[in-house]
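cron nightly-structures :: item 1 of 1
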Amino acid sequence: MLKAGIVGLPNTGKSTLFNAVTRTHKAAVASYPFCTIEPNVGVVNVPDDRLARLEQIFKTGTIIPTAIEFFDIAGLVAGASKGEGLGNQFLAHIREVDSIVHVVRCFEDDDAPHPLGALDPVRDIEVVTTELVLSDLDAVRKRIEKAHKRERSGEKDAHAELALLERLVPHLNAAKPASLLEVHEDEPRLLHLFQLLSAKPVIYAANVTEGDFAAADQHPLVRQLAEYVRTHHDAALVPVSAKIESELADLSPGEARDYLKDLGVADSGAAALIRATYTLLGLITFFTHNDKEVRAWTVRQGTKAPQAAGVIHTDFERGFIKAEIIAHDELIRLGSVHHAREVGHYRLEGRDYAIRDGDVALFRFNV
């Protein structure tokens, strides 16, 4: 299962947001640093209205969404890369996740003072980014020493690895995350092997007050942050209100809709954040159905039909023959499988077909 780590400075609302997103109370919430030490873990369903629409056609009574595993990682502080505030331990936790959700504080709260004093979201991002970059710089320098030895011994890939590492040093020294380094040919694969913290894809969550959420896009700090992360990190920003999300976590779906409507909000910030995290990782969803369930499955963009079948069961990939495919929107428009087949909108695809987001698939196989 894919893993996303929630990070940020202390007292940004990370643990509150984690509890809300995972609809649990696993993470302790307190107004002092390092309330969280070991990461809390929760599995979160990816919101997808298409499942409910498909269930109305197939009438299975059961839908199974796809999911992401979220980790609530303790707040980082300046000097974390040198061990400040149990930094080495916390940075190691970040290393285990596939992507980072960086929560940035955009609210005042006298009961939870900002650890750095004045509210300054851009500074806060730079503090956390600097610690990730410094940790990576140390790791890259150590790896260069080993790569030199491997190159002298004639090991394959050592020269290409060393060239990339030596380009990373001035890049990181300029306080730029590894994710912004221009790479080519086989370098993305090598960069992934290095497991650098600042190379992980990041989405930023601007945590605002309950009263600011409905018009968060117009909030001066949110607008400033959105421009900053776009120009300095080539990343997206999603406004959230951890306070609102914590209220929603204890409500039924109907009550939650009414609550959001009263606030003048169309959708939960947490739902938008979950979907954005899914998209950030370059993932798409396809659907299958049988007599018992309609189910969503996760694959990376560009995944071929046999490998998508293998996500369901290895036998499906091993004995793959064809995939019977129809787009979700097309099936919903036609209203039934029978009508879709009758008008020829189901199609057979072979081994070279790349699964598309929203495909409804039936795999033919023989083992």
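cron nightly-structures :: done
The radius of gyration is 23 Å.
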